[in-house]
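Lab notes, practical 5.
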Amino acid sequence: MPTLQSISTLLIALLGAGLNGSAQEHPFVHQYQLTELSGAISIEWALSGGSTCDGQDVERSTDGLTFTSVHRIFGICGDPTVTIPFSWLDASPPEFSIVYYRLKFGFDGYSSVKKVEYDQLETSEQRFFPSPTLGEATLLINVSVGDQVDVAIHAMNGRQVMEMRNLVGPRITLQLEGLQGGTYTYRALSGDRFFTGKFVKL
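Output from the prediction step:
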């Protein structure tokens, strides 16, 4: 027979995950937010109730389904009389990903799931994907948001086949449907910085 505590925990978990796809927040949580910073993501939340759960976990996912714990706060969480703020800085989020977070409160369930689109590059200077590409592709280069970028594309014999000016970085969408199948090189210029690479058009 399920205990009253296990039934209560299940109900709180369902509230945190959301019923019928409609996410509802854990009853003790408020001011729960994600903030994208330079090279990191800040997770901040406050508990305005509770005092029974032993330990909190920050869990992270890149698909919104499978979560793993990336940080643990030990000790009794929350207080029934005062609001207690918490925060954690994720200094190594998965690059160029939609990153999902949720909070686990011991055996007292989960917060809702929140996400942030993390389009930063820290361990590499550029990414071009997909390659091979059927037509539309994305070039992500390590420049500041709003920086102007010029892109030139060349065939393997060195002939320039496409040029695009005054694009806005760091994320650039390239329409390549007009290119014939083959291998090409690209060269992106932003200020005095150059980014070069290859890709395959099917």
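Observations recorded by the TA: The first helix runs from residue 4 to 17. The chain is about 5% helix and 50% strand.
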